[in-house]
Amino acid sequence: MNVDITGKQFELTEPIKAYVFQNLETLQKYGLDIISSRVVISADEKQGRKGFKVDLTLNLAKRGTVVISGKDKDLYAAIDDIANRASKVLRRESDKIKTHKNKDERKEQILDQANAPLEKIDADEIVPMELNSYKPLEIDEALNILKADENGQFLVFNDMDAKMRVIYKRKDGKFGLF
User: Are 56 and 86 in contact (CB under 8 A)?
Assistant: First the structure.
């Protein structure tokens, strides 16, 4: 990340720069690929009150630019306020990426999981399988195949009219047909 710290009407010291760097490093934990950040600290004196104004600009890869401004009497409090607000914004952006992924990215993930070795697939994931229906079956034949398979709950097959059918075991011990 490229960091630029500027002081307007105010002399920046090394401890202030180090404090700003320290706060900006905490923003890296969201993994949003911050390209550059610019911090402008200016002394602000209006109506006899002294204070500091801090402007933070973050350029994010593929996400745009985030601009946050804040004022406070204490310089370190102003920097903390800006860092906290930037942290909230970046957390929201990170959550959007995690929960609202593009459909193309989801398709890529599904394809990657389908091609992954079986050891890596969790129990809750759906594993695509090919349907082995080489010849059409009579309904009685499909029923006998399902009865013969002790662990089978259903059987998908093509009937004699080339219509795809599903025969399944019901909870009451009978069989159903779609």
Answer: yes
